[in-house]
User: What shape does this take?
Amino acid sequence: MHLAALLFASALSVGTLALDNGVMRTPPMGWLAWERFRCDINCENDPKNCISENLFIDMADRLAEDGWRELGYVYVNIDDCWSSMERDAKGRLQADPKRFPGGIHKLARYMHDRGLKLGIYGDMGTHTCGGYPGTTLDKIQIDAQTFADWEVDMFKFDGCYSNATEQEKGYPLMSKALNATGRPIGYSCSWPAYQGGLPPKVNYTLLGQICNLWRNYGDIQDSWDSVLNIVDWFFENQDVLIPAAGPGRWNDPDMLVVGDFGLSMDQSRSQMALWAIMAAPLFMSNDLRTISSGARTILQNKMAISINQDPMGIQGRRIVKEKTGIEVFWRPLLKNASALVFFSRRNDMPYRYQTNLGKLNYTFGSYKIFDVFTDKTMTLKDTTDFVVSVNPTGVVMWYVSAPAKRNLRQKFRQTILQNKHWTVETDKGSLRKNK
Ligand code: GLA
Assistant: This one.
């Protein structure tokens, strides 16, 4: 680290320090195999859908050719079940030779040639969660070096078959080992998920210093129940989680399941909107070869992505929880802008929710509103009541511009309102002397 950077870093509070590998200043985006393709290694019966180099090549081609890469979806991440059951003669992990005949290095090259990145998976216990060889403490250095030699760009370190003491040693050790290779490798730690996700067991200050992202909670499944369960946990614990996040260090509520089988279009918009509010990594786990145009439109929504990718990297929060089942989420964005999400937990019919920006803590002013999923725009004063119609399990998402500077009439009105001798006709801005 340069001296200036060091001074700057030490001037910040400890909670704002991030892993010093320079990567993932905004939440990483891409594709991850696990939720959709699991540990399907049955290539004889299902060559198109098994965990093999063909699957990752197919997904890379889709990312590069169908407009995903340009939007920021650049990681192609291998999860469990990629390796051979045996290490090689030199003690290194090796890919299953039948399913990955070209090997991982060649796959990484394939990604890099297309402006994409490759992620890989390991586990700091005796075995991965799927029963493949693990990276016990004594293997950390050699495995980190192997991944760097293969020119891998991201590494997810799972925690099955390890205990708390081993994790406490292993996660920081892997961080050092990856840094020592000299290759910037985004580091995803599952550590907090194995320790209940909350202090005092989980030290988010430390995590921010050693990992770029971390799984805090259980695995996502292809269902609305699962998405809702994750959303609830993350927002119930928002006061602990929000300060942990920032450029280079992200809470990871797990993959996007938009484009799979379990979510309706409204629920898909909800997942996209809430993941954007949470500054969550956007790893899709779906089949990009067959994805519906509806799901693609949601995942490729530029405004939702730019909210997710806001350079300030401040994780948003739930600000309203109504008895009616309506909840409002807010995230501050660059240049005094913000995002709002109105979410309905209801199951009956679209709910007409009435409020105003003032009630949502917005200060005096006039705001330009951009509706993320309908592209409609409007202008709202902080005091103007509005109604949003929110579908069951759905959202309305807004990008809210910085408040416009008060115009002369407003300034004039404010001054004069304080004067006992004058009355203001507010809507016309004209004055009348008091009798
Ligand atoms: C754990 C992780 C998942 C996935 C599987 C693979 O359950 O949390 O994300 O990596 O292991 O076996």
In short: Residues 4-308 form a domain with the TIM Barrel fold (CATH 3.20.20.70). Residues 1-16, 414-435 have pLDDT under 50 and may be disordered. The radius of gyration is 24 Å. The chain has 15 helices and 18 strands.
